[in-house]
Amino acid sequence: MKKDTFNISSKKFNSRLIVGTGKYKNFLECSKAIKASGANIVTVAVRRVNISDKKKPVLMDYIDPKKITYLPNTAGCFSSDEALRTLRLAREIGGWRLVKLEVLGDKKSLLPDMIETLKSTEVLSKEGFKVMVYCNDDPLMAKRLENVGAVAIMPLAAPIGSGLGIQNSTNIKIIRKQTKLPLIIDAGIGEASDAAIAMELGCDGVLVNTAIAQAKKPLDMAIAMKYAVIAGRKSYLSGRIKKSLLGFASTTKKGII
Amino acid sequence: MKKVKKIKINLNGRPLFLPKGTSIYKVIKKNKLYLNKIAVELNKEIINKKKIKKILLKNKDRIEIVHFIGGG
Predict the structure, then answer these.
(1) Of these four, A180, A183, B4, B68, which has the most CB atoms within 10 Å of its CB?
(2) B6-66 homologous superfamily
(3) Contact yes or no for B68 and A92 at CB 8 A
(4) First-to-final CA distance of chain A
(5) Is A81 strand, coil or helix?
(6) Chain B within 8 Å of A56 (Cβ-Cβ)?
(7) Measured between alpha carbons, how far is A68 from A66 in angstroms, rounded to an integer?
């Protein structure tokens, strides 16, 4: 049997769970959760260094970019210009080319601005970035992103941090059918079963931040997410039975007394 | 004794007074930052870190120094 591998832009990863590093109580909890989740990739944001407090701990002291793949993102960017500036800076920090693009369009819903996102994807791809793109669950837009060079399509399950789970499974299935690119559910996961459902829809991976970081027990939730992603993937590959309105007995009538 | 001329720059949104002829590299070292963990922008242009020692600051220069923080 062919081995089930997870590749993004020809790089192989063992875990299909990507985790965010925001919203944790502290860096120690964050690093422990990452370990528990088994993730190989973590998203990170780009911000000003703290000039006034030089002793404040920094992310890189807790999560070693040589051991875990950093995926710089554009969290908080509301225009293409801001996103491009952020990722060019991320590249300068240490040569990061594999990046996660997200350009938001609305401060309340945090839904993506797909016009700006499409524009940025094209520019970044031409500059040599490998762009994983946070996007709406819109198959047409997903196709356009693919056409301008995205290396992974990352539709939302629901708004960022909402914990609502997958809202439009039909669209996710359509996107799955139309693309061979890695399809990763990004945003809106609330609990482990949401991650399993995403995988059962045929997604290649899931990105989770808030659902782990803000759970009452982040480390346990990290473990739950790890196994949910594995379970969902196995379930998808195993070929589920057909659904039926009526029942079919599991036990033969032969030999009944 | 000749008084050293000062320049006023902006570092991460805050004003900073420095002696004329200070390099960006010196500002980074003074703030105990490691080059392999940061990126630097001078007047909205990204600085190639290899050339950073040679760049001297001028009055009204704006520097942004960024690094990675936790994010989703």
Answers:
(1) B68
(2) Beta-grasp domain (3.10.20.30)
(3) no
(4) 43
(5) helix
(6) no
(7) 6
Beta bridge partners of residue B8, listed in sequence order: B17
What is the domain range of residue A153?
A: 6-238
Among B11, B30, B62, B67, most A C-beta atoms within 10 A, so best to mutate, is B67
Give domain status of residue A247, yes or no.
no
CB A135 within 8 A of CB A105: no
Classified as helix, coil or strand, B61 is coil
* Sequence ranges of the domains in chain B: 6-66
Put simply, the answer to whether B37 touches A72 (Cβ < 8 Å) is no
Q: What is the ipTM of this complex?
A: 0.89
- Tell me the whole-structure pTM to 2 decimals: 0.91
B45 Cα to chain A: minimum distance (Å): 9
pLDDT at A1: 62
pLDDT of A136 strictly over 90 = yes
Give tens-digit pLDDT for A155-186: 999 999 999 999 999 999 999 999 999 999 99
pLDDT tens for A45-54 read: 999 998 887 7
Contacts of A208 (CB under 8 A, 6+ apart): A17, A18, A19, A20, A37, A189, A195, A225
Residue B19 in 3-state DSSP?
A: strand
Is A100 part of the annotated catalytic residue set?
A: yes
Task: Give the residue on A whose Cα is nearest the Cα of B50.
Answer: A92
Among residues A202, A177, A192, A201, which one has the least CA distance to residue A229? A192
Cβ A20 vs Cβ B71: under 8 Å: yes
What is the C-alpha separation between A6 and A15, in angstroms, rounded?
Answer: 8
d(CA B11, CA B65): 8
Segment B28-50 shows an average pLDDT of 91
Main-chain phi, psi angles of A112, to 5 degrees: -75, 145
d(CA A127, CA B30): 33
